[in-house]
Amino acid sequence: MVELDGDDIRISSRGKLAERDIVQFVPFRDYMDRTGNHVLSMARLAKDVLAEIPDQFISYMKSRGIKPNPAPPPYTPSGHTHHTQI
Question: Residue ranges of region Disordered (predicted)?
Answer without folding.
Answer: 63-86
